[in-house]
Amino acid sequence: MEQKTNQRIAKISGHLYPSNSQIMEDSSEVMMRANCRAKGGAPGFKVAILGAAGGIGQPLAMLMKMNPLVSVLHLYDVVNSPGVTADISHMDTGAVRGFLGQPQLESALTGMDLVIIPAGVPRKPGMTRDDLFKINAGIVKTLCEGIAKSCPRAIVNLISNPVNSTVPIAAEVFKKAGIYDPKRLLGVTMLDVVRANTFVAEVLGLDPREVDVPVVGGHAGVTILPLLSQVKPPSSFTQQEIEYLTDRIQNGGTEVVEAKAGTGSATLSMAYAAVKFADACLRGLRGDANVVECSFVSSQVTELPFFATKVRLGRSGAEEVFQLGPLNEYERIGLEKAKKELAESIQKGVSFIKK
Ligand SMILES: NC(=O)C1=CN([C@@H]2O[C@H](COP(=O)(O)OP(=O)(O)OC[C@H]3O[C@@H](n4cnc5c(N)ncnc54)[C@H](O)[C@@H]3O)[C@@H](O)[C@H]2O)C=CC1
Ligand SMILES: O=C([O-])CC(=O)C(=O)O
């Protein structure tokens, strides 16, 4: 009887840790919460964050909890998700539930409309994103197997690096499970766009909110290709400005890794970018017209099977993948370099599952 009451209270209070939660063990809390009156859930989308207790996961969870399009937020991690969930559950916005460890992955994912994945290790100075492959490839594989089983129709936003390889890994896992829908798998390259808007606005003396820079290719070094010839509002740059901006945008991640001096990589700007992108996906799911953002997706824009360009987000994910548009000579040379490195990273991801 007492256990049943506790379980009901756990649901009301937004926790799912029958043996783990301090709150569950505190009888005065139990009395207080027992008097809560459960109401019907608010309309909106169900969103899960996998890796929710991490450097990106925590601010991302906070910002998603503030998003009016989200009715239920599930926070999953292999450590520390009870504390993060308890903290976030006190925000006076939509519902949140926490899930800890592999046995709770299925419950974390069941019924989700959107799954955001920032799980995995970040870089330290001197490392490339590809150096993370060894650990993160296996993490992404396991999580995507969970998605295939528990919410095969969910839109997936994949943040874990190296994105150029983890997206192909996810695709192969979904193919193997027979549920692959290319429109629903989106690699998150939004931080490159956010950085490009910021750095270009600095050079032009504009408000970054007024600037739109398409960034295509992938998400590592030379595969990050800003198309400065297509900046909005239309702008011209000197060759020196083009070289400075391209280098800064391509190495923005490394700039943060070095500044953080061994304590991690971009987390706050990434959480901001992830929410900007997730919000666009949710607006697309809701049926809003003309929701367009850059993303690393299954693509026929080049000869490569995956490529980042602008995509139109709709009820079933990336419903339209836009072409590159006219490139100048500098961008055409950059594109060739990007494709060479991307081809290897994509193949590495595919082989990891097919081997
Ligand atoms: N796509 C992009 O633009 C960016 C990607 N990243 C990548 O995001 C990833 C996460 O970065 P941070 O949050 O800074 O790292 P972090 O180490 O602070 O957090 C990662 C979280 O993932 C969790 N985790 C590990 N294995 C897991 C599993 N099997 N299931 C669920 N959770 C698991 C950890 O417990 C930790 O809480 C890294 O791979 C990083 O390189 C980072 C910045 C930008
Ligand atoms: O640089 C890193 O390792 C993290 C990342 O992807 C970024 O900040 O763009």
Q: What is this entry, summarized?
A:
The chain is an alpha/beta fold and 355 residues long. It contains 13 helices and eleven strands.
CATH superfamily of the largest domain: Lactate dehydrogenase/glycoside hydrolase, family 4, C-terminal
Q: Give the tally of structural domains.
A: 2
Secondary structure category = alpha/beta
Task: Name the strands of the widest sheet in spatial order.
Answer: 3-2-1-4-5-6
Query: Which CATH architecture of the largest domain is right?
Result: Alpha-Beta Complex
Secondary structure tally, helices: 13
| Mean pLDDT figure | 91
Tell me roughly what share of residues is in helical segments: 40-55%
Distance between the termini: 51 Å
Order of helices and strands: HHHEHEHEHEHEHEHEEHHHEEEH
Q: Beta-sheet strand percentage?
A: 15-25%
Associated small molecules: 1,4-dihydronicotinamide adenine dinucleotide, oxaloacetate ion
* Major sheet size, sense and barrel closure: 6 strands, parallel
CATH topology of the largest domain: L-2-Hydroxyisocaproate Dehydrogenase, Chain A, domain 2
Q: Class of the largest domain in CATH?
A: Alpha Beta
User: Would you report the number of β strands?
Assistant: 11
What general outline do the C-alpha atoms trace? Answer: globular
CA-based gyration radius: 21 Å
Low-confidence stretches: 1-34
EC number: 1.1.1.37
Keywords: NAD, Oxidoreductase, Transit peptide, Tricarboxylic acid cycle
GO biological process, one term: tricarboxylic acid cycle
Catalytic activity: (S)-malate + NAD(+) = oxaloacetate + NADH + H(+)
